[in-house]
Amino acid sequence: MSRLQKLRTLSSLKWVPLLCPESNSTSSKSNLYVSGSHHLLQHLRFCGTESLKNGGNLGELAKKSRVVKREAQAALLEYFHFTRSFQIMDAENMSKNTPDFFDRLLRRVDIRGGGGGGGGGAEVGKSVSRFLRYNPVNEFEPFFESIGLSPSEYSSFLPRNLMFLNDDHLLLENYYVLCNYGVARNRIGKIYKEARAVFGYDYGVLKSKLQSFQDLGLKQSLVAKVIASSPRLLWGDVDKEFVIVLEKFKKIGITYDWLEEHISIEDSYDWKCMLELVFLLSDLGLSDEQLGELFAQHPPLLLESSGRVTFCLFGLLLKFGSKISDVQTVFLQFPPISVLKFTENLCNCYDFLVEINMPVEEIGKIVGSHSSLLGSCELKSVKSLMSALNCGKNRLCQMVKEDPRLLKKWALGKRVDPLQEQKRVLKVRMMKTEFLSSLGFEEKTNDFEKALKICRGKGVELQERFDCLVNIGFSREEVVEMLKASPQILNQSSDVIEKKVGFFVKDLGYSLSDLRVHPKIISYTIPRLKLRLLMYKWLKEEGAVHPKLALSTLLSSSDDKFVTRYVNSHTEGPEFWERLKKEINSDENI
Fold first, then answer.
1. pTM surpassing 0.90?
2. What are the sequence ranges of the domains in the chain?
């Protein structure tokens, strides 16, 4: 029995349970067929009555009856296969996978034209066959739709002087080359849309191009996926950039099997963009081995939008103030989520920090030091958190400053309990009080209240920072005096304190006694210290300023006042100031 006969027999059998739901499994075969025919006739008469309201065409009937639709499709398949001599696979594809063409065709077919539907289901097929006999269709329409193009996409591709596919020999030749090579029929439309010239290639040209990809070492199944996702690779000779990409992939350990497993024919790929991403990550300091492991564990980093999302993430991290070393760490410790989701989470966390009124400088610090954490968290909204914790934005902001890892506990889907405010405040105050008392601060004095209000952190953390200053070279008494003058110097980690003091003493040549007199200097950022003090050093050498200006005066004034009062005192001052600023910013980004 032919494939077509089997299809039609199967379709006939499927009518029985559809039209005879009341029949049971014990009914005889003959009764089933009789009952089925009776109900089919009743059904068609009902639809025929309905069609009077809709102009008598099959379009509306097919929408209401799967039986009508199947019979009309069978007639169309028979027309394409027997009348137009298409291969059975193509005839079936063009009759069943072309909903827009099929609907437009049936709207033109009048079922009442051949006897009012008295012939049952066969009348539907006869009506379609009769219409096609006297009204040949433009075969390019169902062909283009069957290969995955919508009417709006293929309308400009319809030839003006041709109706029958067989008249375009090269189109069919190259179409069959792709089908036989393993490209799914419904994916060929994308190739036609993006590389139309391929379907005008002379006999044997497309086969040789496909073979040239296999000559690079690619399996036929991989080549089929590659050209289905990147049709432009079929233009001209083998794309040189594609060859370079394959060589680079091979160098970093990405195998062809990995490519075949992870590239998707649903997507389009820009191989040049992916190559640039590999070079960017190499310049970032990742070795070939690290790159191979990174892409093996996280394919979307390379393949999602051809790496453009990763480029976007890289730019965001730099924009948020992350150093190159921080960015490198983010990629080396990338969490097991898609790069798009990671980037969205990072942006949402940034919006969260802005919404709770966190200063820009603090946001930069948190993003720079906790990028992986922020990218892994899908946070609750600020409003819902405030409700759950029973606190305001200021309190939220303070909590995140003290411990950014809390954000992980505030992710969607996690339970958040209200803060035990009074108990927590008393505990923190008690720890700070014990620490300050151990240093000799007397409770209820101005110095004590000032230090208690300004110092942030737990008692243990404050003690570590205090010990750090002592270990640097200050005496215990000197550190206490420094704290009375500027308690905020303990609001930094021990590493930051060591780094600032080391720069002030070793790089700028000042002494610890200068810091003891002006302890607030430790609170300023290193870029500010570098810029102001190196500028002052140059101005002193040029004799443009007083050689013994107070450090606190130099550092506390705003940039505008500093430029007006000191930088502009020398004719070449503004130029040196700008050059120095660029050098310092460049050093900070390394």
1. no
2. 3-164, 168-268, 269-418, 420-523, 525-590
